[in-house]
Amino acid sequence: MKHKLIIILLLTIGFMKAQEQKQSYSFSLQQAIDYAIKNNYASLNADRDIAAAKQKKWETTAAGLPQINAGLSYINNFELTQQGAAGGGPFGGSPSEVLTFAFGTKHNMNAQATLSQLIFDGSYIVALQASKTYLKYYENAKQKSNTEIREMVVNAYGNVLLAQESISILEKNKTTLSKTLFDTQETYKNGLIEEENVEQLQITLSSIESNLNNTKRLLEVATKMLKFTLGMDIDDELTLTDKLDNLSTSNLDLAFSQGGFTVDNNINYQMATNFQEQRALELKLQKSKALPTLSAALNFGYNAFGNEFTFANSDQKWNNFSNLGVSLNVPIFSSFGRSAKTQQAKIALEQAKTQLTQTEQQLKLEYERAKSDYEFSIEEYATSKSNLNLAERIEKKQQIKFTEGLSSSFDFSEAQRQLYSAQQNYLQSMVNIINKKATLEKIINKN
Predict the structure, then answer these.
(1) What confidence score (pLDDT) does residue 143 get?
(2) Model pTM greater than 0.85?
(3) Which of 58, 77, 126, 418 is the most exposed place for a label (fewest CB within 10 A)?
(4) Greatest CA span in the chain, whole angstroms?
């Protein structure tokens, strides 16, 4: 008994700690979008790409600034290299004799510092321009990521609201139908109607219960998908404060789709323009390689020699040396290799120009499609709302007739199915308005 109490206590403590680790969030749609832009996984990496691009830009800039390097080298000559000399001269010996001598000391140490500076290099100038374009590319990529995240959050948020509203309607339908079934069963017991009427209602009720259970599972999946899109832990608690009806009404703006489309504002067009700029700079880089390069270096240092390792002694003699060097490199002939690279860069630039034109035309087409889809969603919403009102009246009339024995269970069930279908169509039409407007806003780059 004592062991069981300990186990229960440990499980309780573990459960309480797990509950403490969970966080609770409550978001409107706009709050969810703002949160996702800061915490979505793709957004976080896009921020890191920009930070890395800034460091890359500085790396390129630093290549043309003064560079200082220092070094210390030590050589221990276990056996000095022998040099040969013919005899008979100042070294003595016979002319036919080869004399060998060892030059140098056993221990050598050298300390040196070098200051180098690039004076002129055409490719460096182009690289500076390219680094700005490189950074701009990732800034555009971040903006594109934000627009895509916004659309994904809108879709995921809408799916959760759709599931919630569907569950609410299905539970209401189940309650109403269960009461009707009970009343029908009582009437059947009194022998006033046929058993088929009861069975028909039972079939409809089973279908509703099945759809309700499935929608509850879909709600769980949709909620976790929304959490994932937001960049949250999928086990954290999330409450949505916006309602589907309010969101759909606030997005009903037919005048919005009449505002026109400026392709320059679209982030995909901006990235295609950026890509063309990169290709133009690559062509410029290849041309710059035909220009001469000029650089200079200043060396300063000390060296010391000895047959004993005495470099740490205060009386060690250190010999100073220094020099200044200038290097000029002039490309003369590359067997047309540079020309071939230049031509390749020209071709790549022409391809980028064609891709930019293609992107422009494609975006105009996507805008027209998105505009049409959004306008249709508004029309579809009005139609489905009207159809729902009609289906509710028809179902109510059929229910009265069925209760009074003036219509068959088949007619009543058909009216119910028509009502349930109209309910789902109405809910879906509200979600479509939200989603289609988000797609249109993405194309025109409206935040």
Answers:
(1) 94
(2) no
(3) 58
(4) 145
